[in-house]
Amino acid sequence: MGIVGFVSDYVTDNLGSRKKKRKPNQTVEIKVKMDCDGCERRIKNAVSSVKGVKSVKVDRKQSKVTVNGYAEATKVLKKVESTGKKAELWPYVPYNSVAYPYVPQAYDKKAPPGYVKKAPQALPVDEALDQRLTMMFSDENPNACSIM
């Protein structure tokens, strides 16, 4: 293989690594209050002009904008805010995926139907389940006999 093979391998390795790495395809969900068709159209046009955006879906009823593509969430959020609307990343999770949906930080009357706010107290902790199971069969637990 000699010097020619070494030089060709060196050139292909070094030039090949200088290619731009593409960001992963992701979905960005943003909460934006929209009142009319004009607001919806203005936001959709602004977001679709961001480099890397593949598709934009606007749901005025839920005040939600869903963006698919290679764009970063911060850039999309800034572009939506440049239209004059107050925007934030989607703060809600589905009601079924939360262990404690009525924790004061999680329950929100403004949330769309079937959603609650993403709060750390609402999400289940793995240690709590283990502790409950070990206490269930403990001699110190007065209700342990009802299970056995």
From TrEMBL:
SUPFAM superfamilies: HMA, heavy metal-associated domain. GO terms for molecular function: metal ion binding. GO terms for cellular component: membrane. Keywords: Cadmium, Lipoprotein, Membrane, Metal-binding, Methylation, Prenylation. InterPro entries: HMA_dom, HMA_dom_sf. It is found in: Membrane. This is HMA domain-containing protein. It comes from Cucumis sativus (Cucumber).
